[in-house]
Amino acid sequence: MTIIVSAAFDSGNIRVTGIDGDVVSLEIVTDHLSDFYQWFHFRVAGARGRTLTFRITNCAGSAYPFGWPGYRTRVSTDRETWAMAPDTRYDDGVLTWTHRFDTELAWFAYFQPYTMERHDALVAKAALAEGVTHREISQSLDGRAIDCLSVGTGAKQVWLYARQHPGEPMAEWWMEGAIELLTDATDATAATLREKATIHLVPNMNPDGSYRGHLRTNAAGMNLNREWDSPSAEKSPEVLCVRSAMDESGVDFAMDVHGDEAIPANFLAGFEGIPSWTDALGAKFYEFGRRLAQATPDFQTEKGYDKAAPGQANLSMSTNQLAERFGAVAMTLEMPFKDHDPNPDATHGWDGPRSKALAHACLKTLAGMIDEI
């Protein structure tokens, strides 16, 4: 049979540059109107009974080439269960792995995908849950809905938003976990948060990039997490509408959910360096991280990004903008494309179900601190 490689589907991205026997050579396609690339997701048919070697040859020029060493490709034969290709290796700018095809089809991806079809199903189910209010607060450049779900009646205004960078699907897996917990009528954590806070959730800030198979940008080639100081209807309506909704409600606590290519751990990034920084506000952020590390082995505080110097925070990034704009306890949660090395999983690495479980731990931590925020 002829080997067929396809990425013409929701969140797909790959280009075939050659097939020589059992060796398939590939390239990742750049985001539209952008030089960013790293996300890949494709399907292979016609290889049952064969062992193929895959080579992505343009990794050296990707957005984060330092993220490839130690990384392992994700593989699935049913699009539900994803495992790491154990022999993945990175040498001289080429990512290589092999797969024995015992099935008719197999899918490969940079991380366990979260498609727009799954997003739509998540929003539909959540919108039917008791106590949930759904708003389509605007539309993307391609005309896709920017969905916002609100739950709870308390005075504290909590904003949870994800997937500004579409090629970081662990962020929406996290959101699925958060929504499932917050809509659980029997969960004590959810009851506390619903009583004391109003929680607004934007599961996907960048639906166009998600569908198009982008790594980092929207349909206009804009990195949304560099648009928060001056978003525009022409280039970044996704940020403009969410920030406007935040202006209406106010923000006491905010978490921006992401994935990090290089660091093999879950960690938080804060708002050090904003003009209005105070040690009292910063202490609340640091305390959240300490309590989260105590709550789950899937979080740690040793690894992370360097802190901005006083007065040097980039206010075009949402966490800095919200801390400065509202005096919010704001933070960015980063999850790995590799694994959480302090508590590794040799088969699956970091994946969707673990991202969902981390959301539960984050919300339990927030419930324990909600009166202090």
From TrEMBL:
Highest taxon listed in the record's lineage: Bacteria
Active site: 334
Family annotation (CDD domains): M14_PaCCP-like
InterPro entries: Cytosolic_carboxypeptidase (IPR050821), Pepdidase_M14_N (IPR040626), Peptidase_M14 (IPR000834)
A Gene Ontology molecular function term of the record: carboxypeptidase activity
Cofactor(s) this protein cannot do without: Zn(2+)
All copies of domain Peptidase M14, residue ranges: 112-370
Signal peptide: none
Record's keyword terms, sorted: Carboxypeptidase, Hydrolase, Protease
Family: Belongs to the peptidase M14 family.
Name of this protein: M14-type cytosolic carboxypeptidase
Organism of this sequence: Sphingomonas donggukensis
